[in-house]
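USER:
Before I trust my own judgement here, I would like a peer's view. Write it directly below this note and I will take it from there.

ASSISTANT:
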Amino acid sequence: MRSRATRTPRDGAGGVRLRVLRRPLAVWALMAVLAVLNGGFRELVLVSRLGHRGAHRLSTALLVAAILLVAYGFFRSTSVEYRRRELAAVGVCWTALTVGFEFLVGYVEGTPPTVTLGQYDVFAGEVWIAVPLALLAAPLLFGRVLRG
């Protein structure tokens, strides 16, 4: 008899199967590369045409669109039947990894955490919050909509 700690949930039990979270981590890595490329495009092309605030807003919209397209493509093509909890876990992981990455990059660049936090201040007109919200919602949205 297995101990309680080593038991795996039955299909109907609704637990999170850790093995099905590997591919979504690779998908997040792709999204991270797209985000870095998007940032480069913003700095090299958009800032000179739109200014910093306009470039940041357009760049955020482009990144949200890229996130949604990648998530849609992944969940449309995967053969894994994700449970609701697993989809939520994917969204939480993608969001936590992204926010952590932002703070890590800020730390490496010498940006104070208060400045990084300021990017999430919608009351100050910041729109970056749309990125983690898209990352959080996309798995539940596409994992459920595409699978019924």
Notes: The longest helix spans residues 22-77.
